[in-house]
Design a protein that fits this description.
This protein is mainly alpha-helical. It has helices at 11-26, 33-44; strands at 49-51, 65-67. It is 41% helix and 9% strand. Helix 1 crosses helix 2 (33-44). The chain is globular.
Length: 68
């Protein structure tokens, strides 16, 4: 079994979310709030985002995605 760690939403992650949301809105895209927080957490912590739903995250600039 793979252990999981809960990562709290910090001020730094919230600020990154705002930046990413602004970038996307300038391009005419509207990200989902939950996806935005998930992606911003990975960006802030310099982690790859592991997902089966890469389609929702490919639009987010600078995000490393790994699928399974």
């Amino acid at each position: 079994m793979i252990p999981y760690q809960t990562i709290p939403l910090t001020t730094e992650i919230a600020e990154e979310s705002s930046k990413v949301q602004a970038q996307m809105q300038r391009r005419g895209e509207t990200p989902g709030l939950n996806d935005l927080y998930i992606a911003s957490t990975a960006l802030t912590l310099k982690l790859a985002l592991v997902t089966r739903n890469a389609q929702d995250f490919r639009r987010i600039p600078g995000l490393k995605i790994e699928t399974y």
